[in-house]
Amino acid sequence: MKQRQSSRRTHFAALLVGLLMAAGVQAATWQEGNSYTAGVSVDYNGKTYTALVTHTAYVGAGWNPASTPTLWKETGTSNTTPSPTAAATTAPTVAPIVTPTAKPIVTPVAGSGTWDKAAVYTGGQRVTYNGATYEAKWWTQGEVPGASDVWKLIPTITPTPIITPTPSISPSPTPTAPFICPTSAPGMATVQTTCAPIRTPVVTPVVTPVVTPVVTPVVTPAGPTPTPNPNGLPKHALIGYWHNFTNPSGDTYRIRDVAPEWDVIMISFADDAGNGAVAFNLDKNAGTEAEFIADVAAKRAQGKKVVLSLGGQEGRMTLSTKENVANFVNSLYAIITKYGFDGIDLDLESGAGVNLGSPIINNLIDAVKQLKAKVGPSFYLSMAPEHPYVQGGYVAYSGIWGAYLPIIDGLRDDLNIIHVQYYNNGGLWTPYSNGALNEGTVDGLVGGSLMLIEGFKTVGGTGWEFKGLRPDQVAFGVPSGRSSANTGFVTSQVVNDTLTCLTKLVGCGMVKPKQAYPDYRGVMTWSINWDKKDGYNFSKPAAASLKALP
Length: 550
Fold this sequence. Notes:
Strand order of the largest sheet: 17-18-21-22-23-24-27-28
Mean pLDDT: 80
Radius of gyration: 32 Å
Number of helices: 9
Distance between the termini: 30 Å
Structural class: alpha/beta
Shape: globular
């Protein structure tokens, strides 16, 4: 987002320089962060690999031997003793009649294996550690299972056998056959010398019904399946940021006066109160506190979402400790409750220290989940990162490049909308073109949106794979006019053609989706205030385009 005083942003570098050549460090076991020369052999997960090229396994890049065939070649089985596999528990034999429970079919979970401090794990992956099995709740690296909230202990369940009781035998009180003495077989001693009547027992048979199982077919959906949104958003939404400050667009104004075209109103911005806590300081031109609260309530009564945005270019936030997390959650809960906000928007950038491997990533995921638990299922969550923090992971996966990907992945089930900023940062590198796609074009906006919906692998397709989101979770972010950003300006026609290309495959440029996504959510812009100053040149045509979509 823009600076509050000057409305200008700093350009990010469009590309990273190639990997540094480094002296090889030979190690018996592969370690992230080490450098390897071509020809050196390492052990990794029970296998031996030989380096094909000289490289450095940068921390966070995910360049382990098993996932980077361009860097490593498998050459055999390592001498490292693998972790023992627990023996299956044998069901006991129960007399007299036992109907054993059918053996369960176990589907292995991706990522199962012994926990590796250097490995990156995402939500749903399982590991073993100290004899127990754990499942990752979200993206994690280096956090010990059992000592961190990111890991969930998976209990071991032993099936209980089903025992069928012995049939009931009722002897007849009256002999029904003559007295017969047993005859010994040849060569055998006579066991019984006293004759006894043979009694014919009455046996009540146990009838086992024949059960015809009901087979439920497994249906594989074609593409992502939209999930009904419980938060009352329109199918296609116009999202804008409202200034809680004065800048060259003028003084801010009351929320009640925001034009009706806006479906989601982002309050920009919350303030850093220190030690993880968040504050909200209302601008004097937005009305009194009581008037502001009433304005928010009135907009929500009209079906609008009013959301508190955290960050912006000057935004600062500290989330390094559990104490920071607790202060973050408690302070935001108090603000949301007081002002009646629907939820929060994450626009945290470099000022907040969002870099791959930094504590803020996992702590932010944990904090947002705790906050949602306090607010309830109606909690609204959006994100507005600049594109180097997201699609930039396709170029490289270190520092800020791709730093939002683990946050998105960890909060994908809680996320309402992500609207990446496709401006102020130059061209966008995607899997759909040999070169960068330009800002302010249909191709650039469609290509960035497809990467979020279809997913992609980092580091040019060789690294960690980001799984795609639902189309209704994705929108694109552009400036409202030439005064509100440095670069990335769009025309009304570009906005319209991008929306019709994504939803109907109409108006596409060079980049055309394989299928239409009619549930694609919409458009975000910086800002509501600049749009008002410019005579609603952005919001009026954008809202009309959204209403015309399927």
